[in-house]
Design a protein that fits this description.
GO molecular function, one term: protein serine/threonine kinase activity
Protein name: non-specific serine/threonine protein kinase
Number of domains: 2
Order of helices and strands: HEEEHEEHHHEEEEHHHH
Structural class: alpha+beta
Strand order of the largest sheet: 1-2-3-5-4
Number of strands: 9
Number of helices: 9
Helix content: 25-40%
Binding site for ATP: 64
Keywords: ATP-binding, Glycoprotein, Kinase, Leucine-rich repeat, Membrane, Nucleotide-binding, Phosphoprotein, Receptor, Repeat, Serine/threonine-protein kinase, Signal, Transferase, Transmembrane, Transmembrane helix
Domain Protein kinase: 35-305
CATH architecture of the largest domain: Orthogonal Bundle
Radius of gyration: 20 Å
Distance between the termini: 47 Å
Protein backbone atom coordinates (compact mmCIF):
# COMPACT_ATOMS: atom_id res chain seq x y z
CA UNK A 1 0.00 0.00 0.00
CA UNK A 2 2.90 2.35 0.70
CA UNK A 3 6.04 2.78 -1.29
CA UNK A 4 9.64 3.97 -0.77
CA UNK A 5 11.11 1.25 1.42
CA UNK A 6 14.56 2.75 0.90
CA UNK A 7 13.72 5.79 3.03
CA UNK A 8 14.63 5.38 6.68
CA UNK A 9 11.94 5.64 9.35
CA UNK A 10 13.72 8.58 10.94
CA UNK A 11 13.53 10.49 7.64
CA UNK A 12 9.96 9.47 6.93
CA UNK A 13 7.81 8.60 9.95
CA UNK A 14 5.06 7.66 7.53
CA UNK A 15 7.06 4.56 6.65
CA UNK A 16 6.03 2.94 9.95
CA UNK A 17 2.79 2.12 8.13
CA UNK A 18 4.45 0.39 5.21
CA UNK A 19 3.66 -3.05 6.56
CA UNK A 20 0.38 -2.10 8.19
CA UNK A 21 -1.98 -0.56 5.67
CA UNK A 22 -4.94 -0.94 7.98
CA UNK A 23 -3.28 1.20 10.67
CA UNK A 24 -2.38 3.85 8.11
CA UNK A 25 -5.92 3.94 6.80
CA UNK A 26 -7.45 4.22 10.27
CA UNK A 27 -5.03 6.94 11.42
CA UNK A 28 -5.72 9.12 8.38
CA UNK A 29 -9.47 8.70 8.64
CA UNK A 30 -9.34 9.48 12.37
CA UNK A 31 -7.02 12.50 12.02
CA UNK A 32 -9.24 13.96 9.27
CA UNK A 33 -12.44 13.12 11.17
CA UNK A 34 -13.58 10.96 8.30
CA UNK A 35 -12.48 13.59 5.76
CA UNK A 36 -14.41 16.45 7.26
CA UNK A 37 -14.60 19.52 5.01
CA UNK A 38 -12.89 21.67 7.65
CA UNK A 39 -9.62 19.91 6.71
CA UNK A 40 -10.15 20.43 2.96
CA UNK A 41 -7.56 22.74 1.40
CA UNK A 42 -8.32 22.22 -2.29
CA UNK A 43 -10.88 20.84 -4.72
CA UNK A 44 -10.14 19.49 -8.18
CA UNK A 45 -12.10 17.80 -10.91
CA UNK A 46 -11.49 14.29 -9.62
CA UNK A 47 -10.51 14.74 -5.98
CA UNK A 48 -10.41 16.83 -2.82
CA UNK A 49 -7.16 17.57 -0.98
CA UNK A 50 -7.02 17.54 2.82
CA UNK A 51 -4.43 18.73 5.30
CA UNK A 52 -3.96 15.83 7.72
CA UNK A 53 -1.71 15.88 10.78
CA UNK A 54 -0.99 12.46 12.26
CA UNK A 55 -0.01 12.59 15.96
CA UNK A 56 3.69 11.83 16.28
CA UNK A 57 4.28 12.29 12.55
CA UNK A 58 4.47 15.18 10.12
CA UNK A 59 1.69 16.96 8.27
CA UNK A 60 0.53 15.38 5.01
CA UNK A 61 -1.56 16.40 2.03
CA UNK A 62 -4.10 13.66 1.36
CA UNK A 63 -5.76 13.62 -2.05
CA UNK A 64 -9.04 11.72 -1.83
CA UNK A 65 -10.82 10.56 -4.96
CA UNK A 66 -14.40 11.63 -5.47
CA UNK A 67 -16.87 8.77 -5.35
CA UNK A 68 -20.56 8.33 -6.07
CA UNK A 69 -23.15 5.91 -4.75
CA UNK A 70 -22.12 3.63 -7.62
CA UNK A 71 -18.49 3.80 -6.52
CA UNK A 72 -15.42 5.53 -7.97
CA UNK A 73 -15.82 6.77 -11.52
CA UNK A 74 -13.65 5.15 -14.19
CA UNK A 75 -12.02 8.49 -15.08
CA UNK A 76 -11.05 9.06 -11.45
CA UNK A 77 -9.53 5.58 -11.22
CA UNK A 78 -7.48 6.31 -14.35
CA UNK A 79 -6.24 9.58 -12.85
CA UNK A 80 -5.34 7.77 -9.62
CA UNK A 81 -3.39 5.00 -11.36
CA UNK A 82 -1.65 7.53 -13.63
CA UNK A 83 -0.42 9.47 -10.63
CA UNK A 84 0.81 6.37 -8.81
CA UNK A 85 2.50 5.02 -11.96
CA UNK A 86 4.33 8.29 -12.60
CA UNK A 87 5.36 9.17 -9.05
CA UNK A 88 6.62 5.69 -8.15
CA UNK A 89 9.10 6.03 -11.03
CA UNK A 90 10.58 9.42 -10.18
CA UNK A 91 12.59 11.10 -7.42
CA UNK A 92 13.56 14.75 -7.75
CA UNK A 93 13.84 17.55 -5.24
CA UNK A 94 11.44 19.72 -7.26
CA UNK A 95 8.73 17.07 -7.66
CA UNK A 96 6.28 16.56 -4.82
CA UNK A 97 6.86 13.29 -2.96
CA UNK A 98 4.22 10.57 -2.90
CA UNK A 99 4.54 8.76 0.43
CA UNK A 100 1.80 6.23 -0.07
CA UNK A 101 -1.65 5.41 -1.34
CA UNK A 102 -4.75 3.45 -0.43
CA UNK A 103 -7.28 2.08 -2.89
CA UNK A 104 -10.50 0.88 -1.28
CA UNK A 105 -14.14 1.09 -2.21
CA UNK A 106 -14.98 3.39 0.71
CA UNK A 107 -11.91 5.66 0.66
CA UNK A 108 -9.23 5.89 -2.02
CA UNK A 109 -6.48 8.43 -1.51
CA UNK A 110 -2.86 9.39 -2.14
CA UNK A 111 -0.59 10.74 0.59
CA UNK A 112 1.94 13.47 -0.24
CA UNK A 113 4.34 15.73 1.55
CA UNK A 114 2.52 18.88 2.60
CA UNK A 115 3.49 22.17 0.94
CA UNK A 116 2.99 24.99 3.43
CA UNK A 117 2.61 27.88 0.98
CA UNK A 118 0.09 26.28 -1.36
CA UNK A 119 0.05 26.85 -5.11
CA UNK A 120 2.00 29.37 -7.16
CA UNK A 121 -1.33 30.47 -8.67
CA UNK A 122 -2.71 31.43 -5.27
CA UNK A 123 0.47 33.26 -4.31
CA UNK A 124 0.47 35.30 -7.52
CA UNK A 125 -3.23 36.16 -7.13
CA UNK A 126 -2.63 37.59 -3.67
CA UNK A 127 -1.23 41.10 -3.37
CA UNK A 128 0.74 40.08 -0.29
CA UNK A 129 1.86 36.79 -1.81
CA UNK A 130 3.00 38.43 -5.04
CA UNK A 131 5.19 40.87 -3.11
CA UNK A 132 6.68 38.02 -1.10
CA UNK A 133 7.65 36.42 -4.39
CA UNK A 134 10.42 38.89 -5.10
CA UNK A 135 12.46 38.76 -8.31
CA UNK A 136 15.19 36.51 -6.92
CA UNK A 137 12.56 34.08 -5.60
CA UNK A 138 10.73 34.06 -8.94
CA UNK A 139 13.98 33.21 -10.69
CA UNK A 140 14.41 30.22 -8.38
CA UNK A 141 10.81 29.11 -8.92
CA UNK A 142 11.34 29.02 -12.69
CA UNK A 143 14.61 27.13 -12.29
CA UNK A 144 12.99 24.56 -9.98
CA UNK A 145 10.25 23.80 -12.52
CA UNK A 146 12.80 23.68 -15.36
CA UNK A 147 14.99 21.18 -13.51
CA UNK A 148 11.99 18.97 -12.70
CA UNK A 149 10.82 18.90 -16.32
CA UNK A 150 14.33 18.29 -17.63
CA UNK A 151 14.61 15.31 -15.28
CA UNK A 152 11.24 13.91 -16.42
CA UNK A 153 11.92 14.39 -20.12
CA UNK A 154 15.62 13.55 -20.32
CA UNK A 155 16.61 11.41 -17.34
CA UNK A 156 13.58 9.13 -16.97
CA UNK A 157 13.43 6.04 -19.19
CA UNK A 158 10.92 6.08 -20.75
CA UNK A 159 10.30 9.85 -20.56
CA UNK A 160 7.36 11.19 -18.54
CA UNK A 161 5.19 13.99 -19.91
CA UNK A 162 3.28 15.93 -17.27
CA UNK A 163 0.62 17.36 -19.65
CA UNK A 164 -0.75 19.87 -17.13
CA UNK A 165 2.01 22.30 -16.22
CA UNK A 166 0.26 25.40 -14.84
CA UNK A 167 0.64 27.71 -11.87
CA UNK A 168 -2.04 25.80 -9.94
CA UNK A 169 0.06 22.64 -10.21
CA UNK A 170 3.26 24.23 -8.93
CA UNK A 171 3.34 24.05 -5.14
CA UNK A 172 5.59 26.10 -2.85
CA UNK A 173 7.32 24.95 0.30
CA UNK A 174 7.80 27.03 3.45
CA UNK A 175 10.96 28.54 1.90
CA UNK A 176 9.15 29.13 -1.43
CA UNK A 177 10.92 26.39 -3.35
CA UNK A 178 8.89 25.11 -6.33
CA UNK A 179 7.54 21.56 -6.58
CA UNK A 180 5.72 20.12 -9.59
CA UNK A 181 2.52 18.32 -8.54
CA UNK A 182 -0.63 16.64 -9.89
CA UNK A 183 0.38 13.84 -12.24
CA UNK A 184 -3.21 12.70 -12.80
CA UNK A 185 -3.00 13.01 -16.58
CA UNK A 186 0.75 12.42 -16.93
CA UNK A 187 1.81 10.12 -19.73
CA UNK A 188 4.77 7.75 -19.77
CA UNK A 189 6.00 7.74 -23.36
CA UNK A 190 6.15 4.17 -24.62
CA UNK A 191 8.73 3.23 -27.24
CA UNK A 192 7.37 2.03 -30.58
CA UNK A 193 3.99 3.59 -29.79
CA UNK A 194 2.15 6.53 -31.33
CA UNK A 195 1.45 7.98 -27.87
CA UNK A 196 -1.80 9.48 -29.11
CA UNK A 197 -4.35 10.54 -26.54
CA UNK A 198 -7.30 12.85 -25.99
CA UNK A 199 -6.74 16.55 -25.31
CA UNK A 200 -6.29 17.20 -21.60
CA UNK A 201 -4.76 19.90 -19.46
CA UNK A 202 -5.52 23.45 -18.35
CA UNK A 203 -6.95 25.95 -20.82
CA UNK A 204 -4.46 28.71 -21.54
CA UNK A 205 -1.43 26.43 -21.19
CA UNK A 206 -2.13 23.91 -23.96
CA UNK A 207 0.23 23.72 -26.92
CA UNK A 208 -1.53 24.87 -30.13
CA UNK A 209 -0.68 21.68 -32.05
CA UNK A 210 -2.98 19.71 -29.74
CA UNK A 211 -5.94 21.20 -31.63
CA UNK A 212 -5.00 19.26 -34.76
CA UNK A 213 -2.96 16.31 -33.50
CA UNK A 214 -3.46 14.00 -30.55
CA UNK A 215 0.20 13.02 -30.33
CA UNK A 216 1.74 13.87 -26.94
CA UNK A 217 5.42 14.85 -26.89
CA UNK A 218 7.81 16.67 -24.57
CA UNK A 219 7.17 19.80 -26.66
CA UNK A 220 3.67 20.07 -25.17
CA UNK A 221 5.15 20.47 -21.67
CA UNK A 222 7.72 22.92 -23.03
CA UNK A 223 5.00 25.17 -24.44
CA UNK A 224 3.17 25.10 -21.07
CA UNK A 225 6.47 25.94 -19.36
CA UNK A 226 6.80 29.00 -21.64
CA UNK A 227 3.37 30.20 -20.54
CA UNK A 228 4.27 29.60 -16.90
CA UNK A 229 7.52 31.58 -17.13
CA UNK A 230 5.72 34.60 -18.54
CA UNK A 231 3.10 34.25 -15.81
CA UNK A 232 5.83 34.29 -13.15
CA UNK A 233 7.36 37.41 -14.71
CA UNK A 234 4.05 39.22 -15.21
CA UNK A 235 2.30 38.04 -12.05
CA UNK A 236 -0.73 37.00 -14.10
CA UNK A 237 -1.59 34.68 -16.97
CA UNK A 238 -0.17 36.18 -20.21
CA UNK A 239 -3.17 35.24 -22.36
CA UNK A 240 -3.48 38.41 -24.44
CA UNK A 241 0.29 38.71 -24.88
CA UNK A 242 0.51 35.14 -26.21
CA UNK A 243 -2.32 35.80 -28.65
CA UNK A 244 -0.50 38.89 -29.92
CA UNK A 245 2.73 36.92 -30.27
CA UNK A 246 1.06 34.29 -32.44
CA UNK A 247 -0.26 36.96 -34.81
CA UNK A 248 2.80 39.20 -34.84
CA UNK A 249 5.91 38.98 -36.99
CA UNK A 250 8.00 40.44 -34.18
CA UNK A 251 8.88 38.65 -30.95
CA UNK A 252 10.75 41.60 -29.46
CA UNK A 253 9.14 42.76 -26.22
CA UNK A 254 10.89 45.14 -23.79
CA UNK A 255 11.54 43.38 -20.49
CA UNK A 256 9.96 46.23 -18.52
CA UNK A 257 6.68 45.57 -20.33
CA UNK A 258 6.36 42.04 -18.93
CA UNK A 259 7.41 42.60 -15.32
CA UNK A 260 4.84 42.49 -12.52
CA UNK A 261 4.24 46.11 -11.55
CA UNK A 262 3.36 45.10 -7.99
CA UNK A 263 7.12 44.73 -7.42
CA UNK A 264 9.71 47.46 -7.67
CA UNK A 265 11.88 47.11 -10.79
CA UNK A 266 14.93 44.92 -10.16
CA UNK A 267 18.05 46.88 -9.22
CA UNK A 268 20.61 44.08 -9.41
CA UNK A 269 22.15 43.62 -12.87
CA UNK A 270 22.46 39.91 -12.12
CA UNK A 271 18.70 39.61 -11.59
CA UNK A 272 17.96 41.79 -14.64
CA UNK A 273 20.10 39.50 -16.80
CA UNK A 274 18.41 36.38 -15.43
CA UNK A 275 14.93 37.80 -15.96
CA UNK A 276 15.84 38.83 -19.51
CA UNK A 277 17.08 35.31 -20.25
CA UNK A 278 13.88 33.83 -18.82
CA UNK A 279 11.81 36.13 -21.01
CA UNK A 280 13.82 35.07 -24.06
CA UNK A 281 13.52 31.38 -23.18
CA UNK A 282 9.78 31.69 -22.62
CA UNK A 283 9.28 33.18 -26.07
CA UNK A 284 11.28 30.37 -27.71
CA UNK A 285 9.22 27.80 -25.74
CA UNK A 286 6.04 29.43 -27.10
CA UNK A 287 6.98 28.93 -30.73
CA UNK A 288 3.96 27.77 -32.73
CA UNK A 289 6.19 25.17 -34.39
CA UNK A 290 6.96 22.39 -31.86
CA UNK A 291 10.28 21.52 -33.50
CA UNK A 292 11.47 25.11 -32.93
CA UNK A 293 11.05 24.91 -29.16
CA UNK A 294 14.18 24.11 -27.13
CA UNK A 295 14.51 20.98 -25.04
CA UNK A 296 14.24 21.33 -21.28
CA UNK A 297 17.85 20.19 -21.00
CA UNK A 298 18.87 23.10 -23.23
CA UNK A 299 16.77 25.50 -21.13
CA UNK A 300 18.48 24.32 -17.94
CA UNK A 301 21.91 24.57 -19.52
CA UNK A 302 21.30 28.19 -20.51
CA UNK A 303 20.00 29.04 -17.04
CA UNK A 304 23.08 27.48 -15.45
CA UNK A 305 25.45 29.27 -17.83
CA UNK A 306 23.79 32.61 -17.04
CA UNK A 307 24.16 31.99 -13.30
CA UNK A 308 27.81 30.99 -13.73
CA UNK A 309 28.59 34.13 -15.74
CA UNK A 310 27.18 36.44 -13.07
Amino acid sequence: MLKDESTSKSENPFLIWYFDGETMFEDIVEASENFDDKYCIGVGGTAKVYKVEIPGAQVFAVKKLRSTVEGIETENIKSFTNEVAALTKIRHRNIVKLFGFCFQEEHSFLVYEFMERGSLADMLCSEEGAKELDWATRVQVVKGVAYALSYMHCDCVPPIIHRDISSKNILLSSDLEAYVSDFGIAKILKPNSSNWTTIAGTYGYLAPELTYTMAVTEKCDIYSFGVLVLEVLMGKHPGELITNLHYSTSTSIPLKDVLDDRLSPPTSQKIVDELALMQSLSLSCLSAAPQSRPTMRSVCRQLEMQAANN
